[in-house]
Amino acid sequence: MNILIVEDDARVAEALSAYLRQAGYTTHRAADGASGIEAVGQDTEAVILDLGLPDMDGLDVCRRIRGVSSVPIIIATARSNVESRIKGLHAGADDFVVKPYDVRELIARIEAVTRRARSAAPSPDESSNVELDGLYIDFANRLVLAEGAPVELTPKEFDILAVLARYPGVVTPRDRLIREVWGTDWTGFSRSLEVHVASIRRKLNRPSLIATVRGVGYRLTAG
């Protein structure tokens, strides 16, 4: 497994890299946020991200990586307050560990988030396309067209739309969306889900396409 470590402290990064390599992982390091964003590629299978970077806040790095990739991201930082954890998860992180941490716990979390990522990959029966009232969704290529024009969605936005599109006209509960898109049952992602749905509506320029069913979830509708 190829892991990107975004960490400005060379000693911390080297110690972590040595332990991960000993555990059978391949690692490479980025010393700042810009390098970290640039280093994410098709072969990157997980990102360990520090928040205290010299050139930009780690939360911004997390958002920018999440905007172009669905790679699992684990934030590893000395910021231990609950607000920081919530902000990190809302920025698109999959998990959060507080320094100093036991590397064995970090490895367990790496295995957990990558396992969820693999299980969330499209299955063969999801390779077909969906067309609904001018909206076209290509699951295999993660492509969305609205009235023939491409719509640029983030990975999480596409995943939410894809879940709703599998059951057009049927209400999908919030907890099911959170479980399928984020791979967790933690309701703390509820606000993040609302933000992502609002962004999808705006990008599609079709506010009524995703209907909110108060107290339950969302439904993809025509019109």
UniProtKB/TrEMBL annotation:
CDD domains: trans_reg_C. It comes from the Bacteria. The modification 4-aspartylphosphate is found at D50. GO terms for molecular function: phosphorelay response regulator activity; transcription cis-regulatory region binding. Residues 127-222 form the OmpR/PhoB-type domain. One of its GO terms (cellular component) is protein-DNA complex. Residues 127-222 bind DNA. InterPro entries: CheY-like_superfamily (IPR011006), OmpR/PhoB-type_DNA-bd (IPR001867), Sig_transdc_resp-reg_receiver (IPR001789), WalR-like (IPR039420), WH-like_DNA-bd_sf (IPR036388). Residues 2-114 form the Response regulatory domain. Keywords: DNA-binding, Phosphoprotein, Transcription, Transcription regulation. One of its GO terms (biological process) is regulation of DNA-templated transcription. PANTHER family: REGULATOR OF RPOS (PTHR48111), SENSORY TRANSDUCTION PROTEIN REGX3 (PTHR48111:SF72). This is Sensory transduction protein RegX3. The lineage of its organism: Bacteria, Bacillati, Actinomycetota, Actinomycetes, Micrococcales.
